């Protein structure tokens, strides 16, 4: 088990992508469990998907803040690609923990809209790294501030590309991305490593595996399938159903992120007297890939149970098996051994339990 060397209580924590799926759930969890805590959130609130879902997430955070008067929440609408804004946030708030979850997501969207991936995932992340680097300059002038103690950032299972060896291990080579999105995430890991080496910034990358749950991203399969089935449209199941995904419930992801935040890689020097990069990368996945056809079967059962769809819905008439899409891979499967050994944690929510919570949320959110 790794030592907990970062205290979250009373900490000032910057969460980028705070109106996003994982970001908003992380903010909620921190408010509920680490009072007092001071959280700054930034999100550009773009319209890549339905903005009303992002607004819903922010309302949930505002409601939670009212219950925790010792904590604080400051939300800034803006882009991490805006270097001036990021520098202002670091100057004004002096965060000690940074969780970078802001990114342009989606494999297929990166094929048709590559510019936004370069802007957010590369330039934006560079701005975060530079701000973390210069936080130590600020610390030199302020005895009460020690700079960024830990940078945690989102990577993705997409970095494994078309690797044949499964389960995917962080020890595997990941030099063959099959989408621009995957390439930007691998680039984030390389950039973080360089900054850890050059400036001794403790950083941890987290490779997330197919995250799902209530108030999730509408571009994800489970959400898109639900929208189409509800509208009486046909859903397309890629690779003729011969895909497997390591579906990971959002609460498990958040628990993993929170544990990782508290255990930064230790700063130490090598035999040459130079810093050994305080750098780590972990998988966070369910370690139990599910066949896409089984996934759809459970989803339709839970949508029926939640009365999102009628009991007599003809599912077979609304399914179509189609070939693999460019940028997709046939299987994702996380080796979570390192996460278990270092943090005593492994995601465990079953697909049925997770999809049941999603279906119940969907019924409530869209009831009108």
From TrEMBL:
The keyword NAD applies. The keyword NAD applies. Residues 13-284 form the NAD-dependent epimerase/dehydratase domain. Keywords: NAD. InterPro entries: Epimerase_deHydtase (IPR001509), NAD(P)-bd_dom_sf (IPR036291). This is GDP-mannose 4,6-dehydratase. The lineage of its organism: Bacteria, Bacillati, Bacillota, Clostridia, Eubacteriales.
